[in-house]
Amino acid sequence: RSGGTGGSVGTMASESEAQRALQYEQTLMYGRYTQDLGTFAKDEAARLRLQQGHGEGDSPRPRHPSELLEYTQGRCAPCRVCALQCQRFLISKVGEDWVFLILLGLVMALVSWAMDFAIATCLQAQKWMYGGLDTNVFLQYLAWVTYPTVLITFSAGFTQILAPQAVGSGIPEMKTILRGVVLKEYLTFKTFVAKVIGLTCALGSGMPLGKEGPFVHIASMCAALLSRFLSLFGGIYENEARNIEMLAAACAVGVGCCFAAPIGGVLFSIEVTSTFFAVRNYWRGFFAATFSAFIFRVLAVWNKDEETITALFKTRFRLDFPFDLQELPAFAVIGIASGFGGALFVYLNRKIVQFMRRQKTINRFLMKKRLLFPALVTLLISTLTFPPGFGQFMAGQLTQKDTLVTLFDNQTWTKQGLNDEFEYLGILEAWRHPRSSVFVTLIVFILMKFWMSALATTIPVPCGAFMPVFVIGAAFGRLVGESMAAWFPDGIHTNSNTYRIVPGGYAVVGAAALSGAVTHTVSTSVIVFELTGQISHILPVMIAVILANAVAQSLQPSLYDSIIRIKKLPYLPELGWGHHEKYNVRVEDIMVRDIRYVTLNCKYRDLQHVLQSTRMKSLPLVESAESMILLGSIERAQVGALLNHQLSPQRRLQALRQKALAEDGHRLSEASICFQINTEASSGAPTRINPRKPLKPALKRVPSGPVETAPAGTTDHTGIALKSLFCANTTTEPIEAQGMAYRKAKHVRISIVEEMDLGDRMTPAEILDWEEQQLDQLVDFSSAKIDPAPFQLVEHTSLHKTHTIFSLLGLDHAYVTSIGRLVGMVSLKELRKAIEGSLTAKGVKVRPPLASFRDSTASATEPDTTALRQLWDRHQHHHMPREASPGSDDGDELP
Amino acid sequence: RSGGTGGSVGTMASESEAQRALQYEQTLMYGRYTQDLGTFAKDEAARLRLQQGHGEGDSPRPRHPSELLEYTQGRCAPCRVCALQCQRFLISKVGEDWVFLILLGLVMALVSWAMDFAIATCLQAQKWMYGGLDTNVFLQYLAWVTYPTVLITFSAGFTQILAPQAVGSGIPEMKTILRGVVLKEYLTFKTFVAKVIGLTCALGSGMPLGKEGPFVHIASMCAALLSRFLSLFGGIYENEARNIEMLAAACAVGVGCCFAAPIGGVLFSIEVTSTFFAVRNYWRGFFAATFSAFIFRVLAVWNKDEETITALFKTRFRLDFPFDLQELPAFAVIGIASGFGGALFVYLNRKIVQFMRRQKTINRFLMKKRLLFPALVTLLISTLTFPPGFGQFMAGQLTQKDTLVTLFDNQTWTKQGLNDEFEYLGILEAWRHPRSSVFVTLIVFILMKFWMSALATTIPVPCGAFMPVFVIGAAFGRLVGESMAAWFPDGIHTNSNTYRIVPGGYAVVGAAALSGAVTHTVSTSVIVFELTGQISHILPVMIAVILANAVAQSLQPSLYDSIIRIKKLPYLPELGWGHHEKYNVRVEDIMVRDIRYVTLNCKYRDLQHVLQSTRMKSLPLVESAESMILLGSIERAQVGALLNHQLSPQRRLQALRQKALAEDGHRLSEASICFQINTEASSGAPTRINPRKPLKPALKRVPSGPVETAPAGTTDHTGIALKSLFCANTTTEPIEAQGMAYRKAKHVRISIVEEMDLGDRMTPAEILDWEEQQLDQLVDFSSAKIDPAPFQLVEHTSLHKTHTIFSLLGLDHAYVTSIGRLVGMVSLKELRKAIEGSLTAKGVKVRPPLASFRDSTASATEPDTTALRQLWDRHQHHHMPREASPGSDDGDELP
What we know:
Two copies of one chain form a homodimer. Chain A is mainly alpha-helical. Among the domains of chain A are: 88-303, Orthogonal Bundle (Clc chloride channel), CATH 1.10.3080.10; 325-416 and 425-567, Clc chloride channel (Orthogonal Bundle), CATH 1.10.3080.10; 580-648 and 765-841, CBS-domain (Roll), CATH 3.10.580.10. Helices cover 58% and strands 4% of the residues of chain A. In chain A, strands 2-3-4-5 form a four-stranded mixed β-sheet. In chain A, a hairpin with a 7-residue loop joins strand 3 (618-622) and strand 4 (630-635). In chain A, helix 13 packs parallel to helix 21 (538-555), helix 13 (328-358) runs parallel beside helix 22 and helix 18 (466-487) packs antiparallel against helix 19 (503-519). The interface between A and B is large, with 136 and 134 residues.
């Protein structure tokens, strides 16, 4: 990191998430994540070295070198230099952002259009097969059922094999990535291919699945790949902050070109993925999404599907009198009911996932037969929608698109006036049943589709839930609209003109309300305007969407937040609607006071103690245990490296050699040259990986033998103190073990080289002695990399402000200081607990409502002053006996 | 402030702004601002005391006590307690946010509707007068001209007298307020009244002025007042963070109920006022704006103006084929031309203001006759629009609303087909001129209205520029559309169907593009959809708006940013479109290294030196000049207070008394009691104001005489060193003088009391001696209020990141540290200079484009390590001779 302002902005997941991620590996569905690109690179490097040493890998999943290369930036260096000179003038003239955005929009429009085309072809094929076999109902059923089952199974299998990260919606992961967490292999080309093909097959099956969420993910991958491709032409594309901005724009493009809704796309992507949005990124999203939507629709015109560019689901409601004021209560009812429905959908979806996980026997069986679950679900759903069977009561033969077209239809399906029976034409035919009314069909459709959609979205294929929910909402709106039309056949308005009720308008309102409730967004209203091409129902839509949001948000998290929790991704919950009591909780109420720290004048033994006693990813560096003045933050890995270096057999042997040098002068001259090289390579920057160069010569001399037994054998009599430390960590922290592998590998490598040259002349007892002696030395921090300005809070910062700052800066933890003195720490975990209120019993004293008002003037400055006075006093009388301050119980360890 | 996390989030204006604000006091138009509520309260308290003491005020503008009371929260305490108990249950049940938002929406809808009604009546009256006098053209002219002149003059005078803050748009000020700066008297009831009445009169005059910007301001004032009103029922409304959130929602309400455009209102207000937007506030804006727009339109229905709720400027373009693909180039042309036009408008507007200011003679004359300028401008504009005169060539008789209705008209004004002349009906008549074509009328209209609008918006009345620009854009679009219609009379499409070109659609596109270009927003597109009730032209509108933005943003700042600069409000410029080079400038390139600081173990003399040598609002507090470890930040006022207290005559006399006590034991017993009281009151918390209690008894004993001459006479022989310090400051920093007034006042008060009791027994020489002696004492910081966690950056932070953090957290300055050591400071000023590139000559070394890429691994940790090593070395060898570090040139002053 070039400069960690205010702590780790490009943040890592905290300890607890890492642990959860482990649990998560055993779970049924969805992709995996790891914490940090750096850690990943280190692990990989270590593993690769070990593998190269062993000749074969012992890790369960063999990795290809290409996988690793995706994370290195150094390839094609000569090609890059050449291209640079050619393109420099062009690039400097053209500017990059808009070129990038146009390319992104173009590619995504092509992808979207091609996928739509493929999906339409798939659906057409199913219809054709079903229609062609109309002589035999059983054959028809077989065709109707087999076709989607095969497609879904293929999709599930394909994504499982190629890239399990492609499973699911993608919006929750994008939200996490935009918060600054790096998810492993989430934006690679392999995932892109898996997602595109998997999604096409999944949607081609006709299951109630959506393409919106996956499109956000696809667009993000597209942006990441494009950015990597364009980085061949210049260094600008390699900036992390810029990449995040481009990813935000890509999310907008994803929604925009999925629905041909640029404005709605931008807003929806902002609402769904961001907590704080930079307005300066706004135009990027608009620009790219507009261009993408434009190309997407122009392709339809060029393909002669449309005469000109219009909306995707164009409606033709009357403009002069779209709705009556007295219809507004009905719209409000739709909104409130959709709110409950949306919350129920999220609840149902979560319960299905949890049920599948909790049932151990089912789970074990399904884990073995990964493709069985998708196949079974598809079989069940397609059986129920079989048109000659139960499907006749729920318009089963209609595809999702046809369903929407019919639901948004301009006509009234129930009796118009008094005596004319409505003629169902074309695809509207599907909604009519000879022995039941359209109301029954609609109700059955809504009920069946509801649980089907909730179930189908848990299938491990690339799929979203937005469209299914949108359709259900439209059907519910239509139901209310048709009821209103039946109730008031001549309209409510009793003036001269007769304005009949337009049930299609209700369908639009219902669609926006239910999808808004499930996703907790209000921008679904904009999406429906752009989707239908009419904005006349703006007020009913807005009212219904806001009411639906109000109800749903007070009952359940959004679908995406729910998935984030299920997947155990690192997140920070929102403060919620009525969060005023959050102003009264302060950092001092939730902070961890008992933190381990490193002092500037500590000994290596202290480092060892600290590493043993805490699992924190980064440790605060303070001036001294007395002053507790915070100087910076040092990563755990760095502390380990320092300790590692101090106790390295290399140094031990060097010491030994110096002693030996007194005995015989020139015997080791040759070996010492070899030493110099190795020392240089590994001591300068202990954690920076110099990919292969120092490794190969070292390993060439050791063809076999010691390496196999290295972790067990060699370290047995080198670095005993160190080993006990690492072993302790290995047992308690399984995730850490992986990270240690690299250090061990290095350790082993060095010791091998030296054993070759010198042999080990020290007995274990001598080594222990030497190590004890080394541990008592003062730590030399000069080679460690220290974050010089970690983010600091003060004790009186309110929870609300802390939440704001954490989500603004994407922090993972912050130190609490008081006039430079470290007094505590707040991490994402504490914050989350405090917001969710689970910590109340364990220590958060929620202040009475007016507490902050009462003591706003009196007590605010009190502790600051006291702390300052102590500091000042101390300065007057130098090195007073240290006072027992409350936040430093671990001072006993550090003399 | 309850806890300043990471520095002063609720920030104050920096030094330079304060100075500019002074310049600004002399300028012609717009309101004033000051930096900080706290400072304001102090100033006011000091002034009020002085006034009470003097019996009459010597400030030019007498203040009423009620003005001050608005800033105290303590009134009505018994009433509040009573109300609390009654309402507690209700409030806890109901929740507050939505109640507040509903109330806000309701009030604003009523205000908007009532104002529209009043404006329509005013315009009707003018039309009626003009129509009634059609016998005599001269009388007609008189009526046509006098009416708006009187209204504008009244508006200007009224706002000038009641609240000069009400002048202008209000959006620039709201942007500043939402950034965290407190503008004086900007959200008071008086300003509210002035703005509402002033705006009604201004718009009623028929000048080309808008109501959007002022409505944002009105809604914000409404929210602030409502929040203050509701705070009578509970303490929740008094939270600062919450108030900012509510202000953001209020801005959305302002736009929303002005245009009945809730979505556009929310987006426009976000784009115009925020740099980073919290998505959690999103629903607030939507909720309030929707409710407000709903009520606003329902009022129209109830008033029988409309049959049902529809758009404000409803269009009736055909839905099936809104535009041809081949028309898109024409829309793009509109966009690009609008971009240039928008930039020109902003430029023209700024130049007019600057011209008026620069011309000293004009300026002086106009300053004397404040109402002359508005009257002259109105006279000029209304003369030119006089319908029988020049107005006949520019549809002068149409009001702004009628103009828009006609421009968005569905029909084509030029020849339809080959032989039928279009019949102009109703208000369309105005566009026809017997001797010229409609093109000439349109061109004249655009040209005349362009400079008229730019000129009219500089009149010091409450007015916005959005609507005038919107109308000009619509006219321009209409012009292009009519040209296209004349060029392709049968439409471009050569298929079977003939789809004629719809010039009204072009008008919509032009309106969105020009207003988008002037305000640098893309959400004007959403506003036109909501305003016209049709979204069919979404793609042309989006394309034109984005192109217009691209052009305008590369040429000029937005109108609001331009006004911010003219008014010298504290601001941070945007990074702009192609800001990639900003990644390569780092904090170390722009930071001020030569900063003054306060050490923990410094003497009072050092404080004096620091105060004399710097103008910084807050000073860093470091551990010692050797370590430079940053402990916190102390405000300048606090340092002054410390010094003040140390040199106070009170302490001097106490010292004197102790000496005297040795001489005679009991003579001063009575006086000493009086001293005890006074010492308690003023030493405990030097800057906290205990409103009246300690003041009154002190002043009662001094009926007259010494007080009048106090500032000149009494301090003459008390606190000589202090005085020289303050005098030095007074001459160099005129704004500081006001702030010093309070301190002086206190000083004077105390000295008076003591002189009464003791007389002055010391000669000036003795005093000087005593003061020199006092200055050599070590500073006791225990009574000072210190911000324990000011925001810190590191040297390698990129300009881009710094900008993000400054705008995210609303910072005013940040310290640059390196492993706890203070090495520099960055304030808004440096950042602004670096972004605007004006500092390049003076020291910013802009790195070569790929520099950050090249040295990202090698050099990043180098200086940190060096700094750390120094620190470590120093700790090893205690108190080494101090090294000459580059960032501490002022160390010579501080031993």
